[in-house]
What does this fold into?
Amino acid sequence: MLINSLLSTISKDIAIDLGTANTLVFVKDEGIVCNEPSIVAIRKHGNENKAMAVGMEAKHMLGRVPNNVIIIRPLKEGVIANFEVAEAMVRYFVHKAHKRKTMVRPRIIIGIPFGITEVEKRAVRESAESAGGREVYLIDEPMAAAIGAGLPITEPTGSMIVDIGGGTTEVAVISISGIVVSESIKVGGDKMDENIISYMKHKHNLLIGDRTSEQLKISLGSAYPNSHTTEKKQMEIRGRDLIAGLPRTFVVNEDEARKALQEPVSQIVNVIKLALEKTPPELGADLVERGVLLAGGGALLSNLDKLIHEETSLTVIVAENPLTSVVLGAGKVLENLTMLKKVLSV
It folds into this structure.
């Protein structure tokens, strides 16, 4: 026990939200120290591949790399798709959190999608251990998000959390430190970006990149029409004309952006309804009183809360810090490990 305490002092324990789109790192007693894209740039040299950039530096290279450099997102739909690259990415973030000290071996807690397989759990755990973790704990992301958002997870009352990440949307009803009902779909921010790209391609014969799609989603994207204004927001984008093969500028308005996002948004609403149908009556009554909490980057989509309220008649609240709810919750567990071990995923 003394040795563990000494090791924790030398190498501060960390919590990681290993997301499909972004990775956030929380250091005990310091707070969030890192929030960067889950992207790695790999340089190919013969039979060897070497990570040359990670995170924000790698994202800036998107669409601008030579043939011997590839950009990889090692997580797909919330789970590790490329173990070696994921390990390199986790090592980078662990070392960055500890200011490049290579000898530290911190205790690590990582948020994972609820319901992933034991093989996928093992891949996450081994990746963190290979990156220098002394002890590695896993926590279900909906539980971490609920803790981070301040929901009363230990009380005998129902709380619903909808965590909309880059690769997945997870819905959970929590009571007495456990997940009573859960539903998950492989739809999130990435799917929204893909739908915008597809819409522009088929509707306007314009090919746009991932970064442009994401910017359009953030600037114009919405789930429900704005009733308080008659003036439509617009955005000028650039892409390649698929007929002429030449660069072209095009102006998109908010109505088109909403149409492009209609399919993934409908899927998210439907999975919330499915979870509500499976919720026991007593907990359902609690939700009528307490409402639904939205977390994750997708919670920032304009008017998504209004659409969910329209479809379910429940009060819908967006978390105060939706992007950081999971890592803040994991950080709280890290600081109260003995008391909150019952919420960890085995």
Remarks:
- The chain has three domains: 2-38+73-144+325-345, 150-187+263-318, 189-261.
- Confidence is low (pLDDT under 50) at residues 6-10.
- The longest helix spans residues 262-278.
- The two ends are 21 Å apart (CA to CA).
